Automatic annotation (TrEMBL):
EC numbers on record: 1.5.1.2
Annotated PANTHER family: COME OPERON PROTEIN 4 (PTHR11645:SF51), PYRROLINE-5-CARBOXYLATE REDUCTASE (PTHR11645)
Annotated catalysed reactions: L-proline + NAD(+) = (S)-1-pyrroline-5-carboxylate + NADH + 2 H(+); L-proline + NADP(+) = (S)-1-pyrroline-5-carboxylate + NADPH + 2 H(+)
Predominant location category: cytoplasm
Domain Pyrroline-5-carboxylate reductase dimerisation: start-end pairs: 159-262
Domain Pyrroline-5-carboxylate reductase catalytic N-terminal: 2-97
NCBIfam families assigned to the protein according to its UniProt record, in alphabetical order: PRK07680.1 (NF005814)
Name of the protein described by the UniProt record: Pyrroline-5-carboxylate reductase
Naturally occurring in which organism (per UniProt): Mesobacillus jeotgali
Role: Catalyzes the reduction of 1-pyrroline-5-carboxylate (PCA) to L-proline.
Keyword entries, A-Z: Amino-acid biosynthesis, Cytoplasm, NADP, Oxidoreductase, Proline biosynthesis
Residues that span the membrane, as ranges: none
InterPro entries linked to this entry: 6-PGluconate_DH-like_C_sf, NAD(P)-bd_dom_sf, P5C_Rdtase_cat_N, P5CR-like_CS, P5CR_dimer, Pyrroline-COOH_reductase
Pathway(s) where this gene product acts: Amino-acid biosynthesis; L-proline biosynthesis; L-proline from L-glutamate 5-semialdehyde: step 1/1
């Protein structure tokens, strides 16, 4: 299978690097391109075997699975550009949540799917979210699921939970990184620990927490129960968290869904109802 990646910004680059480092594909089986070609060439310097296409059409013509990794308002333009070289045996994959597989299917005549990746895939971990178009063949479904098992836990989702699932899988790392940084800053401000030490301790704590969950030693709930002794120091901290966080996470999901609604409106204006 030949892989094409159109757009090598943050997620496009992460996708390319993860697929190669996870031995899902070889560099020689991948062709990439970017509006600013120098960004694609930077990746080629790390993986000399891969090819850089001069434009989106060249990548689509030479690839079997074509990942469209551009911003939502640029997707339609890319589809219109590559459509003349698409054949029925190819598959177009979007990675952006506001554009549905049905909208993409309305513009191309090949198999279509959406795969929403996560930055955690760069560590060959985390989840990738799958949605399939009505014309997507079983062969392509199985092929891409198998491919992404090398870099993630692939999971098919319903359209109605696309935004919240993406919030958890793709936005979650940024949300929790922000919380941990605030945790570190609080420790530095209120105690004699320095920033470097607090960051090191917090980073290693997170890695250890992940391993406990990965190895099924505890669930999130049982882990908290094990650490939080009644009347102890951890309990005092939990009491503060319960008081201060309140409905913070509900507000986060309200904000992301509001922004998502705005993006959906824009894509409908582009693609039509």
């Amino acid at each position: 299978m030949k892989i094409g990646i159109i757009g090598t910004g943050n997620m496009g680059r992460i996708l390319a690097e993860a697929l190669i480092d996870g031995n899902a594909v070889s560099p020689s089986s991948m062709m990439i391109t970017n509006r600013t070609l120098s960004k694609a060439i930077e990746i080629q310097k790390i993986y000399p075997g891969l090819s850089v296409g001069k434009n989106a059409a060249e990548v689509a013509e030479n690839a079997d699975a074509i990942f469209v990794c551009v911003k939502p308002h640029h997707v339609l333009g890319v589809l219109e550009t590559i459509n003349p070289v698409l054949t029925s045996d190819k598959c177009v994959i979007s990675i952006t949540s506001p554009i549905s597989v049905e909208q993409i299917e309305s513009k191309v005549d090949c198999s279509v799917m959406r795969i929403i990746p996560s930055i955690t895939n760069r560590a060959l971990a985390g989840v990738s979210l799958f949605s399939f178009g009505s014309r997507c063949t079983t062969v392509w479904r199985e092929a891409l699921f198998t491919l992404f098992k090398k870099v993630s836990v692939p999971l098919e989702i319903e359209e109605k939970i696309t935004r919240v699932a993406s919030d958890i899988v793709s936005c979650g790392p940024a949300f929790f990184s922000h919380l941990v940084q605030s945790f570190i800053n609080g420790a530095v401000k209120e105690t004699e620990i320095d920033q470097e030490t607090a960051t090191k301790l917090s980073s290693e704590m997170l890695i250890g927490l992940g391993e406990l969950l990965k190895q099924n030693h505890y669930t999130l709930q049982t882990l908290q129960e094990k650490v939080c002794v009644k009347g102890g120091i951890t309990g005092e901290g939990i009491t503060v968290l319960e008081s201060e966080t309140g409905d913070m996470f509900e507000k986060i999901f309200q904000a992301t869904h509001k922004k998502f609604a705005e993006e959906l409106k824009k894509t409908k204006e582009q693609f039509g109802p």
